[in-house]
Amino acid sequence: MTTTTRVPQADRSRAMRLRLLEATVEVLVERGFSGTTTTVVSERAGVSRGAQLHHFPTRNDLVVAAVEHLTVLRGAELAEALSGLPRGKGRSRAVLRVLGDHFSSPVFTAALELWVAARTDEQLLAAVGPLEQRVGRETHRLTVEALGADEQQPGVRELVQATLDLVRGLGLADTITDDGRRRGRILDRWADVLDQQIHHQTTTETA
Amino acid sequence: MTTTTRVPQADRSRAMRLRLLEATVEVLVERGFSGTTTTVVSERAGVSRGAQLHHFPTRNDLVVAAVEHLTVLRGAELAEALSGLPRGKGRSRAVLRVLGDHFSSPVFTAALELWVAARTDEQLLAAVGPLEQRVGRETHRLTVEALGADEQQPGVRELVQATLDLVRGLGLADTITDDGRRRGRILDRWADVLDQQIHHQTTTETA
């Protein structure tokens, strides 16, 4: 009967790990990095301290694993949101709205807390740096695909990069001021620029 | 003789206040918000705990005053850097390089630490929010002027806002990866877009 009992145990262990990771992200968003202690996370997840220490010996282990977990979710969510968009006119605007929302979501906030903490914490930086590079490449790839951008054309790659830096900047602004409408207008304007520059569509002259 | 002795005392008090503010900014950049304690700042500034408490009763008082001080410096520095730029061809690129450097400087890093801390600290947010609005308006005004942008034209205002969100996003990226060259290429490309969109200059077609 050992096999039948061992399977649920492994499941329970996986479920517990997942609860800890999800609780970590929640607490990062609610209390910031300095408020994200293993005690608070264990309580939130309903997991004993012993079990928490078994899965994640240090706070950094927990936090880095949580953001790694989140990163995978982020990529999947973004890919799904982008895949559902209709083709044709207005597509660039729709793509930028999805990117704007993505970079203003709790997931971005949790990542922001980590980036800022990693700036003054070498050990954390060593873990967060490579993770962010991976996310960056994946987000860039998804954006190129969604916009139908041809990066072989000179200047197109830089515009895609600029687009991602723009939504990152908008996401940062959003953390202290609720500026959804402002963001929408800026993104629409940027989308029109991309249509002209990348797709060579002419829009109404502005002067 | 009271007047002659009172003047230097007032000067000393002002100098002490300034030293505390400058030390706070330095410590914010080096150790982050959670590492910016009044003890560390007093030591760095060479000011007694008593004198520090006299000027700034709480850590938030100190931190908010330091960023207010910094904000004034930021505006003055940016205005000066922009005023020194030559007119004519290549001006937009030069303006964007100045903005890019400005949003990747220690002053931006100190502000970033505050924004992120304010997100989960209501009292700090109440002080940082209005301050950031003021800086935002001033930076926008300087940018409009430097670019020679006519905001009466439809879509121009949104492009200026997008430019500032772009440099904010680049500044955020810069805190964890040293990407000066990447930033330069992106900003040059965006400057060319602005020349087309705002100044109706035609550049070499990219396709």
From TrEMBL, chains A, B:
Keyword Transport: no
DNA-binding region location: 37-56
InterPro entries named in the record: Homeodomain-like_sf, HTH-type_TetR-like_transc_reg, HTH_TetR
Name the UniProt record assigns to this protein: AcrR family transcriptional regulator
All copies of domain HTH tetR-type, residue ranges: 14-74
An example Gene Ontology molecular-function term: DNA-binding transcription factor activity
Assigned keywords, A-Z: DNA-binding
Keyword Ubl conjugation set for record: no
SUPFAM superfamilies: Homeodomain-like (SSF46689)
UniProt lineage: Bacteria, Bacillati, Actinomycetota, Actinomycetes, Propionibacteriales
Top-level taxon: Bacteria
Organism: Nocardioides ginsengisegetis
